[in-house]
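Predict the holo structure. Ligand: iron/sulfur cluster.
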Amino acid sequence: MEGDEIMSKNIEDKQYLVRFKAAKESHLTVMDHDVCMTKCPDKICTIFCPAEVYKWENIRMHVGYEGCHECGSCRIGCPHQNIKWEYPQGGHGVVFRLA
Ligand code: SF4
Ligand code: SF4
């Protein structure tokens, strides 16, 4: 059955069903890179983000917003409230398909 097929897909299969329509401007902003550098030794957004949007690059946080799944975790996960989070511009962002 179709539903069973969907349930039996592994995470890699499901990732293939995710599509993105990236906006020109990021809907995610790291407010202060110095906070990341000096107050967040574990850079935990690089760990908890399921889409690996955040990558620490020597002195600043690179934000690959184009691949964001819009799960909202970084709204609450940053211990310093250092991420400004908005929905992508209308008509842009992630598209989840079931098959
Ligand atoms: S969790 Fe917040 S403070 Fe820590 S590295 Fe990420 S954006 Fe910076
Ligand atoms: S909303 Fe979710 S997927 Fe997008 S950057 Fe934040 S933690 Fe990552």
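Residues 28, 49-51, 53, 68-74 surround iron/sulfur cluster (ligand 2) (CB under 6 Å). The first strand starts at residue 18 and ends at 21.
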